[in-house]
Amino acid sequence: MPRYAMVIDLNSCVGCGACDIACKNENNVPEEMHWANHMVVTTGTFPNVRYQHIPTLCNHCESPSCVRACPTKAMHQDENGIVKHDPNKCIGCLACQLADPYKVIYFNREQAHSRWQNRDPLISKGSYSPREVALAMGEPIPYYNPDRARSGDGVRRKGIVEKCSFCDHRVREGEMPWCTVACPANCRHFGDLDDPKSNVSLLLAKYPSRVLARERGTRPKVFYLRDY
Amino acid sequence: MAFTRRKFLQISVSTGAMVIGGQLGMPALKAFARSTSGAGASVGRWVSTTCQGCTTWCAAQVYVINGRAVKVRGNPHSKASGGNVCPRAHLSLQQVYDPDRVKVPMKRTNPAKGRKEDPRFVPISWDEAMDTIADRMMELRANGEAHKSIIFRGRYTFLHGNLDSALPRIFGTPNILAHSSICAEAEKVASFYTEGFWGYRDYDLAQTRYVLCWGADPVASNRMVPHAINMWGKLRDQATIAVIDPRLSATAAKAQEWLPVIPGEDSALAVAMAHVILTAGKWDRTFVGDFTDGVNRFKVGQEVPEESFAEKHTHGVVKWWNLELKDRTPEWAETHCGIPAAQIRRVALGFADAAPRAISWVSPGATMQVRGAYAAIAGHALNGLVGSVDNVGGILREMSVPTLGNPDPAAYQDEIAKKHFAFKKIDSRGNLDMPAMGAGRPGTVGILNSVPEAIINEDPYDIKLAIGYWNNFVFSCSGTTRWEEAMSKLPFFVHITPNSSEMTHFADIVLPAGHHMYEIWGFTKTKSNRFSQANLNVPSIKPIWDVRMDETEIPWMLAEKLAKRGFDNLLRFYRESFPDPETGKLPQNAEEFALAAIKFQTQPLWHSKHPDYGKAEKIKGWEEMLEKGVCNSVEHPYRTRWDNFGTKTKKFEFYSETLKDSLHQHAANHNVSVDEVLKATNYVARGELAFVPHFEPAFRRGDPKEYPFIFFEHRSRLNREGRSQNCTWYQAHKNCDPGDENWDDVVKINPADGRRLGVSNGDLVRLVSPTGAIECHVKLWEGVRPGTVGKCYGQGHWAYGRVAARDFERRIPRGGNNNDILPPESEAISGSTARHGGVTRIRIETIRTPFIS
Q1: pTM recorded for the entire structure
Q2: Which of B73, B93, B736 to mutate to test the interface with A (most CBs of A within 10 A)?
């Protein structure tokens, strides 16, 4: 079976945020959650200043502490090495969130996308309420992507956690994760670590790589090349 | 499983039904190769259209399921952007489905106008709206006052002529005010007065070895964002990137050299770099030529005999040296622009060593300044010194993609129209202090930001009616309080707009506009990567709002109403001027007109019988045009313009005979000398210096004692012009702009200044300029020079929607609008609004108690 990984070339990344936004779009992620996210770091003093933007996401670890912590096996590794979450098994205990060194797991304390349930139009009779727009579209959010529901909840229900799934619903169709497609810098690469000819294997052979919080022993499968 | 990055682009095409009135039967593009049985995989289609979130105008595609837009991507057929889009395109989904959009036409029921007044809008039918507008227009014509009206153009497509040319010409008003002068006209000065090109340049990034950005932030804003993003990693491998910007911009963060210039002092830096290149003997001999004996006489402080140098493809390099450059050492420049002499020297020599694969990229940041024209020319002249103009790895122009303009409406102008179209325009273009020279012709750039004074002072006459579309000048022009006063005074204003914006607040009739990426027909042109292209705006979704297309349907509907009142010239023009290229059929209603207009004007791209067909990529018919959405030019060649530049001498002019001509023309129009023109336009140079790139000190408003900080502003990589602030995705990712914070509007202050002021991150402060005051939060950040403070443009809406404004109903802004504190100053040679260059000083007042609404 494949062992999927992502390689992010920070030399090419310009920090535009297209990945972050495209991810929200593809996976129907509420605005306050960030399956795809980034860290920003400014170091030095004027005029010798360095700014870095490091894209982050679930590391789909080979030894995932969140999976070990989950009492119900809701958080699990699938046959492709993707750390996935089964909404039907989740009891919302948040053990995974506590165990996750990367803070990429989000909890649905309330019904997601509640702003689209707001019944107040901005201009009385001159504009629709958010709820009217969602109803007119027949979806929980107007630009709802039904393909997300091919694996797990289309919009995650209240009381469970959610996180990046490496777009498993796309990957199983032979498509790249949407952040990888949406990246205009081509800095995100996705593929099979067990295939020596995959682009990720070739890049990892060509460049030294880093992972986040290596010392935690989780063996992350999101690798960073070169410098921002 | 084997992956290819663009596997999903392998699309199959089937033909579909054609468009009928906004409902699309587009060719189906099968996006997903396989579906999971029983898992409900979507069956949608990718529709080609255009993203106009900035002026890159990218060919994009929208994934549509049952008339609903789900996601977007770059158009893989585009050779300019290579199938990439930047984050703005994704934001458009939240723009088109913004619940705060205006859903129906509305009229004002509170006659009092002002920011504090509630317009009390009530819904009306399209019929009533159009009747009301037509009545007011006919009244003006009947009273001999047709000229007392304005068409305000904002975001447009190339079908704009229906609304901003045919309508005013046939109706009879000379007042067509577009947004160009608040956009980037001063940037065009750079290439016009040196190489005769009034336009934005393309850059051969793939082959360059040095990129020198003058305020340009290509990975974040204009005018080739996706291509620049796509190339930047390669550039870091193969080239040196140097960025001149008072802020550590997104591009500066990805550069090897950051030159944090003191705002407005760019010209000092540029002439010093030219000085270094010449004294070091590093100019490009192939392009510029050489001393006849090969001995470099460019020595500090020494004049050079003109006859000792034989120029090749340039004009006046020795004159430039003698008039300006000989004393402009890096040490001299350091005292003005704040950049260490050693860095100036290093960058200049590195740039010259890369010749001719070296790009000096001049942008609005370095030119939309009160004295920005000469910074523009000086920055671009560096390209001349290294021979990168029209050359490999250098500066290019654009290629032909033949389309038709709006047909000439002259035959439909009656006597009233002719008479009133000839009235004096209300703006200040062409005045002694406002040469406003588009392509070197005095008085040809409309001075949008002079309109408030014209309305307020009724000078040269009282404006009674205005129609504006996709614009928000009350927010987007500096000196906002003048706009509020003027719009309050304007008796009748029609706003065609997606959202109820600041400008809408002063409207009498509000018409909901279709979104350019999803709900209208149109086309635009763009360029990058050595290709130019035309791409279509296509109505790709079923709108739930009762919107109409701004440049086609709305003017047609208005024309019908005018015809009912006995004035049918406009309707006849629309009806008779756009025959279907294949069938000759004429449009009979608004919806047919929209389709007729786009087919008529784009026919050279796809209609094989048009004489210009084949001058760009051959598109096989309208259906293929719709499916591809883009038509690419042939590749830009190199060195075809040398000695055929559009300048007076046909050479690349360091001594600009072209500018000399234009300035003399303007001076002659007013019977004054060129020196008097320079004085009137706030320039300090006199005499021959006016015709060479030279140093001009920064112009600033505000006494340094009262206003200790130089204020500068910049653009956001998430700004869809000023319109994405009502998108939660914008707010939730705002920290993608270096130094900025999510869900906030911050002023970036150097920590050393912060300590002196006693402010910390998150503190609420008031920024006070001689023009106005705004409130925002503090961000202490090393990416700005001490003594200067920077703030992004875009936030500070007190209207537009519930996310953009902190309190829409009570008109309380989220953060502050920079244009409230920026004075309405101009770069007068191009007529541009001078928003950059640290045009104002400010003071920072701490607010002890956070503002509670």
Answers
A1: 0.95
A2: B736
